Amino acid sequence: MTQLPRWADVVLVPLISLLLAGAISAIVIWAIGESPWQALKTMVDGAVGSAYGWGYTLYYATSFIFTGLAVTVAFHASLFNIGGEGQAQLGGLGVALVCLALPWPHWTLALPAAMIGGALFGAAWAAIPAYLQARRGSHIVITTIMFNYIAAALIIYMLVSVLKPVGQMDPATARFPAGTHLPTLHEIPGFNLIFTKQVPANVSLFVALFACWLIWILLWRTRLGYEIRAFGRSEPAAKYAGISPFRVTMYAMLISGALAGLMSINNVMGESGRLVQNSAEGAGFIGIAVALMGRNHPIGVFLAAILFGFLYQGGAELGLWTSIPIELRTVVQGLVILFTGALDHMVRMFLGQFFRPRPLGVA
Amino acid sequence: MAATGTTSGRQDTAAPEGKAPAIELRGVSKAFGPVQANKDISIRVMPGTIHGIIGENGAGKSTLMSILYGFYKADAGEIFINGQKTDIPDSQAAIRAGIGMVFQHFKLVQNFTVLENVILGAEDGALLRPSLAKARRVLKELAKEYGLDVDPDEVIEELSVGHQQRVEILKALYRHADILILDEPTGVLTPDEADHLFRILRGLKEQGKTIILITHKLREIMEITDTVSVMRRGEMTATVKTAETDPEQLAELMVGRKVLLNVPKGPANPGRVILEVENLRVVDEDKVERVKGISFTIREGEIFGIAGVAGNGQSELLAVLGGIMPATGSIRLNGKDLDLTGRHSDGQSRRARGIAHVPEDRQHLGMIMDFTAWENMAFGYHNDPAYQKNALLMNNAAILEDSQGKMERFDVRPPIPTLAAKNFSGGNQQKIILAREIERNPDLLLVGQPTRGVDIGAIEFIHKRIVELRDAGKAVLLVSVELAEIMSLSDRIAVMFDGRIMGERMPEDTDERALGLLMAGVGGEGA
Amino acid sequence: DPAIIYDLGGKFDKSFNEAAFNGAEKWKAETGGSYKELEMQSEAQREQALRRLAETGANPVVMTGFAFGDVLNKVAPDFPDTKFAIIDMVVDQPNVKSVVFTEEQGSYLVGMMAAMASKTGTVGFIGGMDIPLIRKFACGYAEGVKAANPDATIVANMTGTTPAAWNDPVKGAELAKAQKSQGADVIYAAAGGTGIGVLQAAADEGILSIGVDSNQNYLHPGQVLTSMVKRVDNSVYEAFSEGPDMTTGINVMDLKAGGVDYALDDNNKALVTPEMQAAVDEAKAKIEAGEITVHDYMSDETCPALTF
Amino acid sequence: MDYATLLQILDSTLRLATPLLLACLAGLFSERSGIFDIGLEGKMLMAAMCTGAAAYLSGSVWVGVLAGIAGSMVLAAIHGLASITFRGNQLISGVALNFIASGITVLAAQSLFRQGGRTPPLSGDARFNPIELPFAESAHAIPIIGPFYAEVLSGHTILVYIGLLCVPLTWWALFRTRFGLRLRAVGENPASVDTAGVSVIRLRFAAVAITGILCGLAGAYMAAGLQAGFGKEMTAGRGYIALAALIFAKWRPWYALMATLLFGFFQALALRPDVITRLFHFSIPVPALDAMPYILTVVVLAGFVGRAIPPRAGGEPYVKER
Ligand SMILES: Nc1ncnc2c1ncn2[C@@H]1O[C@H](COP(=O)(O)OP(=O)(O)OP(=O)(O)O)[C@@H](O)[C@H]1O
Ligand SMILES: Nc1ncnc2c1ncn2[C@@H]1O[C@H](COP(=O)(O)OP(=O)(O)OP(=O)(O)O)[C@@H](O)[C@H]1O
Ligand SMILES: [Mg+2]
Ligand SMILES: [Mg+2]
Fold this sequence. Notes:
Chain A has 363 residues and is mainly α.
């Protein structure tokens, strides 16, 4: 296969994959008897056509940044963490326990504590699959899938049997104390000029942006990041260099799980103010698409998260205002993952036609 | 370039009786992406002969044979079998044409039995039972005919390498191969096994089979082949009758110049003992004992060379010293024990103790191909305080600057530290690794195959650097399969065979012949 | 325009949400107006859906299901000019109308019918999610059964503890088969979409079933004894008709108000004997007159006729 | 627990184990050929929707089954294309296809029937009806065995019996036929098959196609056997449980039967928490029972109960020329 220039690999391949996914989605919309153009317009209007729409798009994007980074860090160590969903749910539990533990006087105190809670629980949930991979060679993909389901069961048990307040019917925790309320963009001076109404996007967005920067530093500026990347590219070489596979696997997965767990400050603490069942709403899986799309780089992840935020908010609007079911966004998400993650060679082969080097041995 | 008129003249003499050659290739070319593995190759092999093919690593021997066997598709060229032009689009066609091949890396299913492996792809019907019964019968006959004994119900992973090779040969014979290709069959064999193999090959030849034998070993060529072809850098440089040539000529044809590797170096001044290895044993992941209790010492200002056929425990020895594999026994560096199994048995700890390591397999171990040159310059030394900005961050600028200097001093071309490692040629990749390791000024330098696949200019440069390090009073452990390199570089030579040291020699007291015998497990005091 | 949000089972659950849907459709057919609707996809989405609808100016916004209670409590104050109606839950906000039904009364009636139709003397109850609301159904049902046949045995199962229990027909079918093997020959399903599986399995096994919320008699004609109808459709219709001036506060829909009833139509005519009908109608009159009080589980979380 | 209850739970076990078994055997073919497939769930779901829709529209359950198989095969073909032809990441392809199936089934069902992403309920010939095995009625007379035969074995739909039959069939195909030998070889060392003159690509596509067929049956059973019609996400993670069962079974057909029966038993037991409470005098939380297959699989993966060694070439695309 011909090697593509770097810019083509970084920009062109994801772009073409995205276009392909978009084209097929359009065909699907058309096939169910709706107008793709109308659908796109509804999505664009609903997601980015107003400050209100942006408020939701950014809210979703915040979650996706966290889970996208989670997948990214693991990917760099050549670990495919599909357990983001479970880790995010456990993170939600951690956040909920912290928020409910004390009558928090102010969010500035509650947020760091909740972050620690969410990260710790998320990391703990990633730790077992990581350990099993590093020490016992169990495939991390399978164990993380299993842990997603175990997490769901655990959360149900916790909500139904432990955390549900007496007299409440739905399986959810009590409302968090008022002191844990995170300011939404509507409540932040400056931003409230744009966001004139209550929107779910909240200060977690800035935590997410900070996390992007931090992960970039981690991967390309620290020894651990160096080791993670080296290990991910070649395990034998890493061993040669004295990099411990166990250490790197554990750290990469712990960081990955912590990031997934951190997502919960956005949805559990920032938006719903209590823990409900299935709080992560699939964001853990979207992290895979985001990381693939974002080429495993924090900047790419940020951009891809915005894109998926758009897709999510736009998809919700579709469900609201058209007869196109909201599941369309699941299809688009699947298509993006398929084209960027599994059919990328197809795209590369196709692009290779245009970047074929002059044949050798002519001279 | 090197293909002269005389060589093509010789080629025509290979068909005296006017019989059609069993195999004839005309103008075969094959490229893997940018690598031209075979360039316009023509060759004839007469029936009932053993034809040798020699050439350096990467010369394109395996590729050519894989084309003949339908494993790869040639970009250009024609194939004639027994005078008939034959298309070989896949291995099925090759098998149909009577060709069998024993690959350099066996193509066996590890958890299948011998029988299952033999019938795979050559079953007689949709059901297995009759096929298995028939194969059992045929195998028994073949065993009698050629001395190819192997238990048909044994699972492959339980078999020794030599037996696995027999299974591969049986596979070919079971498919009625008249033409048998063996790709470096003796590389993995003990001398006994190799002898046995050669007996089998002679038996096959007597039955009228045609055999193509790829090897690096001139001795084997001289011993068993009727004709021999030489390949260099993807081209066929000559085909000659074995009886009409000698090893020196073949070597010259192979490398394209007179091979006289004489490194200018003064006499050694061995000082105090740096490394003491005692009764070292290494068991690999498959629980096979690779190093079976070896002991030696290296002093400062001394190059200790370890010769031997690949796969006799040298790699494992390097891996243990470099902190990649655990071992038992004892190793003392500067009088202090090295941890062989515990927390301090990793590469980091070794480097901290002053051991630098240029691994045998530079692409898989020595560097990260996707990393830039400067990132690779810190590989293994990324914890060096000089490379840190503070407790948290690495000082990339410092590494970059450091790399720039090293690349210039080691004449890495192009001297651009921001280029990805995979974009350097093999020789220059090797220089990057050497620069990284040698400039650490280690007490002990481990070097494996320092000049494998490296051009002459670079070889001289690399040898000079290694000698310089010695002259600076450091110890060097050199592992190489190139006897010439061992002979010219080492101050003391040990030969490893089957996980043991067969003997130690001073270069001035020995010659390649004597070492070759030791490498084959003959004589010596360690056996 | 008015708007309605259906709970997780979806508007075609043939039961609770579908009743609401029918009410909305009836309003649409009669007034020619249009309304917005939304189906919940996940637990975490409730707030967005609610806000988004209120945001677009929909008024009133009706939602079906107790699970909206918590978020409505949070969202309603943000939209003081919008009226909200919630079914099956009491939310104490000035702009919210809370509609609750006396399901125990309707269940009592179908319980009597079950006991009278049973040949084995064992009847079954399959609830959806195990919450007080569903226990209220079960308790009323059990009282009705005992009233008709004091010796009857009642087998009661809940499908689960999470909202998924509303939409698990496989589990419903398996539970029905299990109850049949325990002798039950009439099974009352108060389980939303899960009930579809219960009714199907009962029909397959040749025993009778009782539908819930909507009139489900038509699903398996001649095999569904009756349905405990909960006139969610009427409530939705009413809320839509009142429009932005909807009265707020608690609205109790009891037997007398036509909030609950048992269903009798061509599909189950053959199953309901005249004695049955007479007995049930008598009980109905007595309940309306206050001569019989059916115990409300949610009032004290106990049930005299059934232990859970 | 009395015998009748036990029989009832076993009866339920067999029903619930059937989709797991079919999907598990489906995965077995694919993974034995070296193609990892975490897309079993998606294929089942797709098949369930196609079956529900086609059976309703045609009134014939067999048309439904064919449609289900076709639907599942489409996804299998994409997976094959991605992981065999284009040598993509098999795990990612599986994840992607699960998402696509999850969405597209609802889209299609909604656009066809406008019933909130469901297909209309199936009845009569549009659905599998239980089959009474011969002498089931009279067998009751025989103690122990009789009721077991009549209650547990008899009275299931045809696909249950087909599923059970698939076990020896799979074993036979895998270990007694040429196809099986080659299939196992290609999952262990594709180069061995290639150099023996057999096409790796064709073998792997064949395996993936069989996976498609079996997943199609599993989905058809969900929609027309276990239930009467398709509902959103109706497979509810069964594809993943089947995957777990496959690992638990160490990629062997008879063990697959055991594993899926065990996991089906957990599911049946989760339906009857009352039985457990009565039996052990304490209540096991239902979520714990739900999670049991996953927990057990992790335990097996961790190597505490024997070692689960996947086919050696699994997950790796076969590349001859770099
Ligand atoms: N499958 C492949 N894909 C890409 N490049 C290849 C492949 N196989 C061989 N090459 C390249 O083709 C060239 C010739 O390789 P080949 O294996 O034929 O050499 P060889 O003479 O057999 O060497 P050795 O003695 O080391 O076995 C080398 O540069 C090698 O890197
Ligand atoms: N994959 C690649 N991408 C870009 N450039 C490459 C690549 N491989 C090799 N090159 C460039 O092509 C040139 C020739 O490479 P090649 O490996 O053929 O060298 P060589 O003749 O074998 O040299 P050496 O003897 O040092 O190994 C090198 O200068 C290298 O920079
Ligand atoms: Mg070779
Ligand atoms: Mg080179």
